[in-house]
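[step 3/7] inverse_fold.run input=structure_tokens len=211
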């Protein structure tokens, strides 16, 4: 069993716990030591307590305790996730990719450490994910697509085949990126947007077609 620590008590942190529980229900692999958060809302701590998960304190307090073999960053915002992972790089190893058993995964799929693929996601053939990528419930990634580090694909979003998504991109819920396009690093795709042309770095686009 791998002793695992979840970083982030918010929504995606607790969704990550759902993924871990589903993996363990098929074959026990992870023992969740607890959850770390620098500034958790009271309601989030209450929701963890109901599920009998321990709050381990801030990141610094947790690191001083030495608890856990591996960690996963369950924070939805790409920039925040990158900053947290950067703090930990020299101190502890991230876990391997966490893939919910209900996700549909095609052949030749490659995912880096710290990735989380949630329930009912669909990932086609020859897809590559960098490190610490989040694929939310019911998101779709088409054939031969590539998502770099710290990308977040929100619920129901569709990344079509042969799309390239650079580091730190946030793809909003229900958004669609058409085949063969590129999205520059740090860009944000608004919810329900339809992207019909390449998106420059550090740009926010929204609407149909996305502008």
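[step 3/7] decode complete -> sequence:
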């Amino acid at each position: 069993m791998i002793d695992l620590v979840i970083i982030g008590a918010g929504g995606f942190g607790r969704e990550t716990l759902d993924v871990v529980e589903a993996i363990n229900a098929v074959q026990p692999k992870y023992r969740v030591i607890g959850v770390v958060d620098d500034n958790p809302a009271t309601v989030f701590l209450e929701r963890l307590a109901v599920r009998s998960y321990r709050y381990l304190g801030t990141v610094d307090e947790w690191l001083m305790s030495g608890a856990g073999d591996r960690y996963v960053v369950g924070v939805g915002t790409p920039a925040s996730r990158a900053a947290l992972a950067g703090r930990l790089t020299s101190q502890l190893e991230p876990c391997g990719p966490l893939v919910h058993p209900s996700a549909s995964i095609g052949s030749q799929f490659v995912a880096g450490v710290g990735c989380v693929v949630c329930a009912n996601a669909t990932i086609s053939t020859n897809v590559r994910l960098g490190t610490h990528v989040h694929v939310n419930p019911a998101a779709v990634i088409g054939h031969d697509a590539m998502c770099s580090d710290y990308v977040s694909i929100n619920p129901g979003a569709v990344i079509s085949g042969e799309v390239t998504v650079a580091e730190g991109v946030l793809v909003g819920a229900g958004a669609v990126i058409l085949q063969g396009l590129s999205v520059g690093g740090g860009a944000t795709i608004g919810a329900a947007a339809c992207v019909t042309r390449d998106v420059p770095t550090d740009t926010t686009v929204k609407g149909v077609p996305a502008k």
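[step 4/7] annotate
The mean pLDDT is 96.
The longest helix spans residues 11-26.
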